[in-house]
Design a protein that fits this description.
1 helix; 7-stranded antiparallel sheet
Length: 302
């Protein structure tokens, strides 16, 4: 028998401005939800043409970007460049230092580029690793149907109902699923014991939990589960007008202090000061930042 996890809290992610003209619903890394290791930040972003995230540095974390609509180009100071489109993911390990730009495509209909970006902490021993990228294309993601076809699960990372994801993509162990439930459908997804887990709702209304603990949650909420238990249960009412869709994420908590200053995530205050100094003086991983400007970021210069 699985032990379903209770809901610790569920709250609406409020929209705010971020970057250059982007709109973001941030739910992790806010006063509502901090110290939720290994997760540092979760942004549900909407970037219209002409907006974006021009040249900026990172150190000490991994970012996982899941594009839901449109396309986003990226480019960094090591000469890496590429594009992810709807349904694709990019896993970026900042390690000892990266400087890059993430810029939306100019869609001909003027529509926004929409996606999720999750920041995951790196274990202390990997904070100084070399930066790296892995792209995961929509076509590579195993998709299964359960509950007589009422539930569709995209297995981005981890295991679900006997199916494994393609590969390990992050240094910190993380499971990620994109789950859509039709009206009347229900699902129970096993989760690793002791890992922290949450669900972010993208569409419809979904009831999470079981019995008297069941809570129905609307769009754009973060549902935070208790650490106790080994599964997550969700269902959508038979009379619902639309499917429920949510991203379910679980990760191995890291037993370490987090000291964050903007894009630098380290373990002590001194290491943060050092990161700022290294970035400004182009050393210890930021050598290539000197004089570097991305091609894609130039579209932002007015």
């Amino acid at each position: 028998m699985t032990v379903p996890r209770a809901i610790r809290q569920a709250f609406l992610a409020i929209e705010q401005s971020e970057g250059a003209g982007a709109r973001v619903r941030r739910s992790i890394g806010t006063p509502k939800l901090r110290n939720f290791s290994p997760f540092l930040m979760l942004d549900h972003f909407s970037v219209a043409p002409g907006a974006g995230f021009p040249d900026h540095p990172h150190r000490g974390q991994e970012t996982i970007t899941y594009l839901l609509k449109g396309a986003v180009d990226h480019e960094d100071f090591a000469g890496n460049a590429g594009t992810i489109e709807a349904g694709d993911l990019q896993f970026m390990t900042a390690g000892r230092g990266i400087m890059h730009a993430e810029m939306p495509r100019q869609n001909s209909d003027g529509s926004a580029n929409v996606g999720m970006q999750l920041w995951v902490d790196l274990p202390e021993k990997l904070k100084k690793c070399e930066p790296r990228y892995r792209d995961l294309r929509a076509a590579e993601i195993p998709t299964i149907k359960v509950d007589h076809g009422n539930v569709t699960i995209k297995i981005i990372s981890g295991q679900s109902h006997g199916t494994d994801s393609v590969q390990e993509l992050a240094y910190t162990p993380v499971w990620i699923f994109d789950i859509t439930i039709a009206p009347g459908g229900k699902v129970t997804q096993p989760l690793p014991v002791g890992w922290n887990a949450f669900a972010y709702t993208l569409a419809g209304s979904t009831a999470f939990g079981v019995g008297k603990d069941q809570t129905t949650v609307g769009q754009y909420h973060n549902v935070v589960f208790d650490q106790k238990g080994d599964s997550m249960s969700a269902e959508v009412a038979k009379d619902a007008k639309e499917n429920g869709q949510f991203i379910l994420v679980a990760g191995l908590p890291l037993d370490q202090k987090v000291v964050q200053y903007g894009p630098f995530v380290l373990n002590t205050q001194d290491e943060v000061y050092q990161a700022m100094l290294d970035y400004q003086s182009h050393q210890n991983g930021f050598e290539r930042a000197k004089g570097w400007k991305s091609e894609i970021g130039k579209s932002m210069v007015h």
